[in-house]
Amino acid sequence: QVQLVESGGGLVQAGGSLRLSCAASGRTFSRYSGGWFRQAPGKEREFVAAIRWSGDNTYYADSVKGRFTISRDNAKNTVYLQVHSLRPEDTAVYYCAASPLTIATTGREYDYWGQGTQVTVSS
Fold this sequence. Notes:
By secondary structure, the protein is an all-beta fold. It is built from no helices and 11 strands.
């Protein structure tokens, strides 16, 4: 089992930045790829970003490329999502997840999920 706890969400004005963190415990998290997803009210959950277990390969949704950066610190069992130039349409609950695959971009490829952290962007 891997337990994931997100933090760092909040209310921010458009154009602002946040750093979301995902702290893992349980099995060796460094052997899992990490991912971030988000779900806005009334919408389906969507992929945001993913990172290989080693941190040397990342993948982003087109909507966040150039604004969001995913990274990880395996010594701290933590995955981060640095978000810049936030827009009102980025408002959502952000979830981190862990996958046994090398890298994964769909929700069904992830075995473990956190409870989510709310990001609200005001215009």
